[in-house]
Specification:
It is built from one helix and eleven strands; from the N terminus they run αβββββββββββ. By secondary structure, it is mostly beta strands. The protein has a single domain, classed as Jelly Rolls (Sandwich). The longest helix is centred in the first third of the chain and has 19 residues, at about 5-25.
């Protein structure tokens, strides 16, 4: 099959326009850990290591939480450790602010307000719950999402 000149021009234009987009590196990284039987022991530190494509970029981080509908508290307290920082955070778990997912409720909370620049191509997080009970029931998933600042914004 031979293409005539009228069809080659638009084809070449599409290749040049889509080439840089399809070859660009991702601007976000995410990892999620599923907790067996929706049980989280207080001394079970969750370790997450996310690859980052651009170590010079400014990133924002978010925590993803999935709980069962019978989770016994209206909040989740966690101790979050990442390079150079350790903090205790309290997240309100208000069902009206969740994303319902069948038997579960999904939440996303910001882990920082200013953003940060990682100095390595892999960024490690350690998360432990800080709730009154040693064994916390009803937490199905904990995850971290790191996005370059401005990604997904107009």
């Amino acid at each position: 099959m031979v293409l005539n000149n009228r069809k080659i021009g638009p084809l070449v234009l599409w290749i040049f326009l889509l080439g840089p987009v399809s070859c660009s590196s991702p601007v976000a990284s995410q990892q999620q850990l599923h907790l067996a039987d929706a049980v989280w022991n207080k001394y079970n530190n969750l370790e997450l290591t996310l690859p980052l494509p651009d170590t010079s970029a400014l990133y924002h981080a978010y925590m993803d939480i999935r709980i069962t509908r019978d989770y016994p508290y209206s909040y989740l307290s966690v101790v979050v450790t990442h390079p150079g920082t350790k903090d205790t955070l309290w997240f309100p778990l208000i069902p009206e602010q969740s994303l319902p997912a069948g038997r579960f409720l999904d939440y996303r909370f910001p882990l920082d307000s200013l953003g940060f620049r990682p100095n390595t191509s892999f960024y490690s997080w350690r998360i432990a719950h800080n709730m009154p009970e040693k064994t916390l029931r009803g937490v199905v998933l904990i995850g971290v999402l790191m996005k370059e600042t401005g990604y997904g914004q107009r």
